[in-house]
Amino acid sequence: MKIKKGDLVQVITGKDRGKQGKVIVAYPREDRVLVEGVNRVKKHTKAGTTARGSKTGGIITTEAPIHVSNVALVVEKDGKKVTTRVGYRFDDNGNKIRVARRTGEDI
C-alpha cells in the first residue's frame, strides 16, 4: 500500500471530498486508512459504570476507515499543497524509496 501512517492525504471522492488530514492508522490487508477528521460516524455505546461510579456510554462520534483509493497523498510544491501519486525508486544501497510523481521529490 502506497499510503502510510503519518502521511497527509486529501479525500478525492465521497461525502468528505476535499478534506485533508493525517493518516492515523493504515490497514493494508483491507486496503483502508483511518484519517483524522474524515468519515466521522456516530457510535452508540452501551451504558455502564466505571470503578468510580460515574456513568459511561451514550452516543460518541469517531472516525471510520476509508478506502485507500478514495484518498490522494498531499505534498508541498513551491509553498502550495498539491495532491500526487506515489512511485518508487531504489537508491544506491538497494533501499526502496517513495517518490512523489508530480514533483519528483522523495517522500
TrEMBL record:
Residues 2-29 form the KOW domain. The keyword Ribonucleoprotein applies. One of its GO terms (biological process) is translation. The keyword S-adenosyl-L-methionine does not apply. Keywords: Ribonucleoprotein, Ribosomal protein, RNA-binding, rRNA-binding. GO terms for cellular component: ribonucleoprotein complex; ribosome. Pfam families: KOW (PF00467), ribosomal_L24 (PF17136). SUPFAM superfamilies: Translation proteins SH3-like domain (SSF50104). It comes from the Bacteria. InterPro entries: KOW, Rib_uL2_dom2, Ribosomal_uL24, Ribosomal_uL24_C, Ribosomal_uL24_CS, Ribosomal_uL24_KOW, Translation_prot_SH3-like_sf. GO terms for molecular function: rRNA binding; structural constituent of ribosome. PANTHER family: MITOCHONDRIAL RIBOSOMAL PROTEIN L24. NCBIfam families: rplX_bact. Part of the 50S ribosomal subunit. One of the proteins that surrounds the polypeptide exit tunnel on the outside of the subunit. Belongs to the universal ribosomal protein uL24 family. This is Large ribosomal subunit protein uL24. It comes from Streptomyces hainanensis. The lineage of its organism: Bacteria, Bacillati, Actinomycetota, Actinomycetes, Kitasatosporales.
